[in-house]
Amino acid sequence: MTTLTVLGATGSIGLSTLALVDEHPERFRVTALTAHSRPDALAELALRYRPELTVIGDPRHHRQLQERLAGHGLATAAGEEGLVAAAGLAADCVVAGIVGIAGLAPTMAAVHRGATVALANKECLIAAGHLFRAAVAEHGARLLPVDSEHNALFQALAGSDGRDVEKLTITASGGPFRKASVAEMRAATPEAALRHPNWKMGAKITIDSATMVNKGLELIEAHQLFDLPDERLDVLVHPQSVVHGMVHYQDGSVIAQLGCSDMRVPISYCLGHPERLASSVPRLDLAKLATLSFEPPDPARFPALRVARACLRAGGAAPTILNAADEVAVAAFLDRRIGFLDIVAVIEEVLADLSPPSPTDLAAVFAIDAEARSLAEQAIRMRFPRTVSEPAP
Ligand code: NDP
Ligand code: MG
Questions:
Q1: Ligand 2 being an ion, which residues bring their Cβ within 5 A of it?
Q2: What CATH number is associated with residue 61?
Q3: 136 phi, psi to nearest 5 deg
Q4: Which of 10, 98, 264, 373 to mutate to test the pocket of ligand 1 (most atoms within 8 A of CB)?
Q5: Whether residue 205 has its Cβ less than 6 Å from ligand 1
Q6: Which among 83, 186, 237, 301 could bridge 106 via Cys, Cβ 3.0 to 4.6 Å?
Q7: SS3 (DSSP) at 54
Q8: From CA 122, how far away is CA 208, in angstroms rounded?
Q9: Which ligand is closest in space to the CA of residue 124?
Q10: 212 Cα–ligand 2 center, Å
Q11: Is 167 helix (H, G, I), strand (E, B) or coil?
Q12: CA atoms within 13 A on the CB side of 115
């Protein structure tokens, strides 16, 4: 029996994880579940999986959660303290499925007790990369990458100590605007940007996929996970999302991982590791697919990759700033306060305005994050003093 805590249980990653638990009730028991602002959805999951602790991140929803769970003998908590307490309970594996830097403190709490962490919450590795890795090493935690490309690389690297690796390739679907003109991208609505061709994911990562900021964050994530420099990390646009990652070895062999675009595949690899769990995900039918195509990303329409590579090379606080500015800009785009192309423009502006020293502890990471957020808000207000939907004066 493996005990499991799911941080971000109500999200896309959280629900995919629980779907795997449903397939293997004899193998998994749920220790803790968390969410942020949806107490009803969380309560429903709590009644079903009966965890030791159920936590709502936003304390304003605690009372509703308590009311929904009254009389069922289920403990609840709220706020960041509650999230950290959930991660600190003695579960064998913690699935880090919170979105954004909000997941950093709880995920770090799991690392600090030496847990196995199935990491979807890539922002931990972007915002606090070196500190996060150092904590994993210091506390003997085990980090298993959930992100499909990194999970693919992790699988394709099995048996290698890394010394025989020439480079790593992660694939990108190209998102909904793979073939769009700049004019179409400029006019893109949140609804259009949220229409991802291949993957069903939360809103933030779906917008990040459309701008390709996600692929940029994933380059930094790959750098942190596999210790290779920028020039040995490659991105290929692969619209079918069948090949997720490839390891190029020094003998000319390339080992790739293939699978349908369903996050239950990489999540189940993490949950079962080192075994493989049986799963009911759709099987690949390559004869039916017939064609797998690959193309380089277009640097003119997707400047996010250049910006993220510069942050990767600069290191220090740059990835922390990139992550914070992106979270603010994506939220502003979803609120229709800025246009689609403004997301990366705002990020670049904040990066240009801020050059704090490299963070040496988590408090410094949170301070840089806060400063970058406030600068991003300022950049949004300066550039867009009125909301996009308001008529011009
Ligand atoms: P979702 O938006 O679907 O879910 C996010 C989860 O986190 C929800 O449970 C949400 O609770 C909770 N949450 C949101 N904000 C906070 C907060 N401030 N404090 C605590 N909890 C919070 O996101 P995804 O599942 O799509 O993504 C989760 C992570 O996994 C992201 O880092 C993403 O980049 C990564 N990832 C996701 C993939 C996917 O296929 N979805 C693929 C690869 C990586 P509530 O429902 O109450 O709001
Ligand atoms: Mg990914």
A1: 147-149
A2: 3.40.50.720
A3: -60, -45
A4: 98
A5: yes
A6: 83
A7: strand
A8: 12
A9: 1
A10: 11
A11: strand
A12: 29
Q: Is residue 230 part of a domain?
A: no
- Threshold 0.85, pTM exceeds: yes
Q: How far is the CA of 32 from the centre of ligand 1 (A)?
A: 16
Domain that holds residue 61: 2-146
- Per DSSP, helices labelled H in the chain are 12-23, 39-49, 62-69, 79-88, 104-112, 123-127, 129-139, 148-156, 182-186, 190-193, 203-211, 213-226, 264-272, 286-289, 304-314, 318-334, 342-353, 362-383
Using the structure block, give the residue that is written with the tokens 């390559």.
286
Q: Where does residue 194 rank: exposed (0-12), middle (13-18), buried (19+ CB within 10 A)?
A: middle
Q: Does 88 reside within a domain?
A: yes
Which of 5, 7, 12, 34 has most ligand 1 atoms within 8 Å of its beta carbon, as the pocket-test mutant? Answer: 12
- Atom 21 in ligand 1: residue holding the nearest Cα: 36
Nearest CA to ligand 1 atom 45: 36
**Structure confidence by residue, pLDDT tens digits, 67-100:** 999 999 999 999 999 999 999 999 999 999 999 9
In the structure encoding, which two tokens stand for residue 376, read together?
A: 């991003």
Token pair listed for 143? 């980090």
Average pLDDT over residues 234-242: 98
Kindly state whether residue 210 falls inside one of the protein's structural domains.
no
Number of structural domains the chain divides into: 1
Q: What percent of the chain has pLDDT over 90?
A: 95
Q: Is pLDDT above 80 for 389? A: no
In a domain, 318, yes or no: no
For residue 280 and ligand 1, the question of a CB distance below 6 A is answered with no
Q: Is the CB of 14 under 6 A from ligand 1?
A: yes
